[in-house]
Design a protein that fits this description.
By secondary structure, the chain is α+β, with helices and mostly antiparallel strands. Among the domains are: 127-270, 2-Layer Sandwich (Alpha-Beta Plaits), CATH 3.30.70; 379-566 and 745-833, no CATH class; 570-706. 60% of the residues lie in helices and 8% in strands. It is built from 24 helices and 15 strands. The chain has helices spanning 19-32, 52-74, 93-152, 156-162, 187-197, 234-246, 258-314, 337-351, 379-388, 399-414, 417-432, 434-438, 448-452, 454-471, 495-499, 532-565, 569-600, 612-620, 632-681, 684-698, 732-756, 759-783, 789-830, 847-855; strands at 10-18, 36-37, 175-183, 203-208, 213-214, 221-222, 224-232, 250-252, 318-319, 325-333, 358-362, 487-488, 491-492, 712-716, 725-729. Helix 16 runs antiparallel to helix 17 (569-600). The radius of gyration is 43 Å and the shape is extended. The protein starts with 9 loop residues before the first strand and ends with a helix. The relative contact order is 0.10.
Length: 856
């Protein structure tokens, strides 16, 4: 069988790589992505491995690239994706890459440092410009106030304080002042602190700077105020400066005379213009460097990550005693060994080595990893299976069967033609726009799972359309395509009757018109029938049981394929055969009765039909068939058959419980006796014993020990000069407990799992009823008022609400609920019959996987 139905056959191999060719060979294997290397140095610390220095250099280069990426993103420069997949750089190219990255990093850091210093100076000059303007305004107000006092001739001392220049606030009292800028949010606390520390002996004036300033370090916007503080004496001056320093207020020199301030302002404006020109040139140079780096950034990332991955992988290898050869062990698919050989040959040729690389298969008793080849269509189904557990090596893979059963069981619960069409159209749009949506939906945390599962969503939509035709359900309404086959009092139902707003009670005894049967699906007249739920509940409940028993039977059959593949005839005889008999004796007979009732009874004789539940209870309780399924004449035979089936099912339980442990114990006793005879006869019988074992293996006999049970081994020495042999210690109690758990789980699981499949009926009923409620309570009200302006507005509004709730509740929430229930049916009810899931995934060394994980 192909790898889709069963995992790939794996082998353990040993690689012998020449030191000069090892890098190129590992690079080729990374591009191929079919080899999983094993760590041959688990006890060696990561810092003591051979290529740890190279890994550190790669880490440093990756750090430099991340710094460049951060600077490019900060400057809002787009980083183009790599259009090519460059090969891993040669080891000698590492020095060139290091030099390029170091040069770029130093250049960007230097430019950033100079730019930050220029911006800081520009900020200080800008603040000084506003201080000179605002303080001039303060002094002009003081001069105007002085002029008013002088004209009123009220206080000559005030005239001496202000002086002729106005800004010279009184040389008589020798008032001093300081000017600066402070962040606006700190101003209230700053003013309060000045008042308390200086005890009200200072005078503070402040004004807002309308221009938004930017922090040179972070680039954040700042809101600042300029201030001027008047005080008297050196003691107050020192206190004021200490407070300014504590509140991180910048102090600037401010001349006392107006002419000096005007001259300083002109100088500040000239310097601002010069700084602005220098800043513009610096920014242009920085942008040129970043744009040039952005073009190659993606390619550089790929090269460095490939380089790092290669050296990290080579740290898993061993060095031989000559230090000229690297030894590696790996798992690889048997079918792809020729591709691996070609890759090693290409790597050797690239390196220029004259000694070829060697790949040898190694025999081992270790469990190989599980590898299932998938494509973008089958990968989502394989991911669903792997989410529950990785398949045991070479056991049946449930993924290919889930491709059909998963969307089908989903559609049984979600069956609506309209909802299925919307889901299928949405998934088809994602499939058609697959590549453009990969960078939008594919990278969105919420929508990425839907995008990744676009193929399964498309299949679920198609199957839901099919189920919607079977249920004849379109947004809770039926489609009358072929005309109804029902009639009442001799009158058939027309399309006008079916469209009317009324209900009727359908009498099953009324036969169809002239033997006419609705060709496909359910007759649309059931949509307006009052007994619709009674009919649909019976129909959906029975098909749920049929689907459930059919899928469980198929799961038990897949366990037979596993037993035959692993040549475990014991499991076939002691597990598959009694399990299949038990399942079919009870629940297979139940399915038979459901189908038989459909064929043997019609509407006129439905009152004589036996109840399935009562018949099943009577069958288990060894009662008779009342009423019988086949009539009075065959009633006794039916009772006999049912009794025989129950007895057979009951006998299957001890068959599964005792047969396998008993046979294993007998085989173990036989093996122990044979080993004792070998020890008693001496060393000469060992070869004969080995040849007998080989003959038995060639004859296809299975192992004496059960592969599903783990035994505890002890190692005994046969004698002097003989190698020790590993003997398995058989524990009958452990084997019996294991088999008892399996028997109880299977027998009880058949009952509980069959009941669990009734969720198909329950979810289908819930979805249909909720859809009908939304139509009746929303859109139906709007449609009843058609023909008027108010009715048109009401139709539009109710349609908007109905469409929103349909998409949000019925499609998203109900769809998610049906998806989770389908997931449960596959994980527990289906896979439980044959799937062990005790393997571990095949994780090959692949550049593609490494780069995709880094991108995510």
């Amino acid at each position: 069988m192909g790898s889709l139905f069963r995992s790939e056959e794996m082998c353990k191999a040993q690689l012998f790589l020449q030191s000069e060719a090892a890098y190129s060979c590992v690079s080729e294997l990374g591009e191929l992505g079919l080899v999983q290397f094993r760590d041959l140095n688990p006890e060696v610390n990561a810092f003591r491995r051979k290529f740890v220095n190279e890994v550190r250099r790669c880490d440093e280069m990756e750090r430099q690239l991340r710094y460049l990426e951060k600077e490019v993103s900060k400057s809002e420069i787009d980083i183009p994706e790599a259009t090519e997949n460059p090969d891993a750089p040669a080891p000698r190219e590492m020095i060139d890459l290091e030099a390029i990255f170091e040069k770029l990093e130093n250049e960007i850091r230097e430019v950033n440092s100079n730019q930050e210093a220029l911006k800081r100076n520009f900020l200080e000059l800008t603040e000084l410009k506003h201080i000179l303007r605002k303080t001039q305004h303060f002094f002009d107000e003081a001069e105007l106030h002085h002029q008013q006092i002088h004209d009123a001739d009220k206080d000559e001392e005030a005239h001496s304080l202000l002086g002729e220049e106005g800004p010279r606030i009184g040389q008589a009292l020798r008032l001093g002042f300081v000017a600066g800028a402070i962040e606006r949010e700190r101003l209230p606390a700053f003013e309060q602190m000045l008042w308390r520390v200086c005890r009200g002996n200072v005078y503070l004036r402040h004004a807002q700077i309308e221009t938004q300033l930017k922090d040179p370090s972070t680039g954040d916007e700042m809101l600042k105020n300029v201030f001027i503080i008047f005080f008297q004496g050196d003691q107050l001056k020192s206190r004021v400066k200490m407070i300014c320093e504590g509140f991180r207020a910048m102090l600037y020199p401010c001349p006392e005379t107006q002419s000096e301030r005007r001259e300083m302002a002109m100088g500040v404006m000239t310097r601002l213009e010069d700084f602005q020109a220098v800043l513009h040139q610096t920014e242009e140079h920085r942008m040129l460097v970043l744009v040039s780096a952005a073009r190659k950034l993606s390619v550089w990332f790929i090269k460095v990550r490939k380089l790092k991955a290669i050296y990290h992988t080579m740290n898993l290898f061993n060095l031989d005693v000559t230090q000229k050869c690297l030894i590696a062990e790996c798992w690889c698919p048997v079918t792809d060994l020729h591709l691996i050989q070609l890759a090693l040959r290409r790597g050797t040729e690239r390196s220029g080595s004259s000694v070829p690389s060697i790949l040898n298969r190694v025999d081992t008793e270790e469990a190989p990893p599980t590898y299932n080849k998938t494509n973008k269509f089958t990968s989502v189904f394989q991911a669903i299976v792997d989410s529950y557990g990785i398949s045991t090596y070479r056991e049946v893979n449930p993924a290919p069967y889930a491709i059909i059963t998963f969307p089908f069981l989903f559609s049984v619960m979600f069956g609506d033609l309209g909802h299925g069409a919307i889901m299928a159209i949405f998934a088809l749009w994602m499939i058609v726009k697959e590549k453009p949506l990969a960078n939008t939906l594919g990278k969105n945390e919420m929508l990425a799972p839907i995008y990744d599962g676009r193929y399964i969503v498309f299949l679920m939509g198609l199957f839901s359309i099919y189920a919607g035709f079977i249920y004849n359900d379109l947004f809770s309404k039926s489609i009358n395509i072929f005309g109804s086959a029902w009639y009442v009092s001799g009158q058939g139902f027309s399309k006008a009757d079916l469209a009317g707003d009324w209900s009727l009670q359908l009498d099953p005894r009324n036969t169809s018109i002239e033997g006419y049967v609705y060709p496909f699906g359910i007759d649309p007249i059931w949509q307006v029938a009052e007994n619709k739920l009674s009919f649909l509940n019976s129909f959906k409940m029975k098909i749920s049981v049929i689907f459930g028993v059919s899928q469980m039977t198929f799961g038990v059959f897949l366990s037979f394929l596993n037993h035959r593949y692993f040549r475990s005839n014991l499991n076939v005889f002691c597990e598959f055969v009694p399990g299949m008999i038990f399942l079919l004796s009870i629940f297979g007979y139940l399915v038979f009765m459901i189908v038989a009732k459909w064929f043997l009874f019609d509407a006129t004789s439905s009152g004589q039909a036996p109840s399935l539940i009562i018949t099943l209870i009577d069958m288990v309780m060894m009662g008779g068939a009342d009423p019988p399924l086949y009539g009075d004449d065959l009633g006794k035979r039916q009772t006999t058959i049912q009794t025989l089936l129950v007895v057979t099912a009951v006998l299957c339980a001890p068959w599964m419980l005792f047969a396998k442990p008993y046979i294993l114990k007998k085989r173990n006793d036989k093996k122990v006796a044979r080993d004792r005879n070998i020890r008693r006869l001496g060393p000469g019988a060992v070869d004969e014993h080995a040849s007998l074992i080989n003959l038995e293996e060639m004859g296809g006999e299975e192992s004496d020990l059960d592969p599903t049970v783990t035994y505890h081994g002890t190692e005994d020495q046969v004698g002097p000069g003989h190698s020790g042999e590993h003997e398995e210690k058989f524990d009958f109690g452990e084997v019996f407990v294991h088999q008892a758990i399996h028997t109880i789980e299977f027998c009880l699981g058949c009952v509980s799992h069959t009941a669990s499949y009734l969720r198909l009926w329950a979810l289908s009923l819930a979805h249909a009823e909720l859809s009908e409620v939304l139509w009746t309570m929303l859109l139906g009200i709007g449609l009843q008022t058609k023909g008027t302006v108010l009715g048109t507005i009401l139709i539009w509004s109710t349609f908007a609400v109905w469409a929103t709730l349909t998409l949000g509740i019925l499609l998203f929430m109900e769809g998610l609920s049906a998806f989770l229930h389908t997931l449960r049916l596959h994980w527990v009810e289906f896979q439980n019959k044959f799937f062990r899931g005790e393997g571990y995934a095949f994780c090959p060394f692949s550049f593609k996987v490494i780069l995709e994980n880094r991108t995510e």
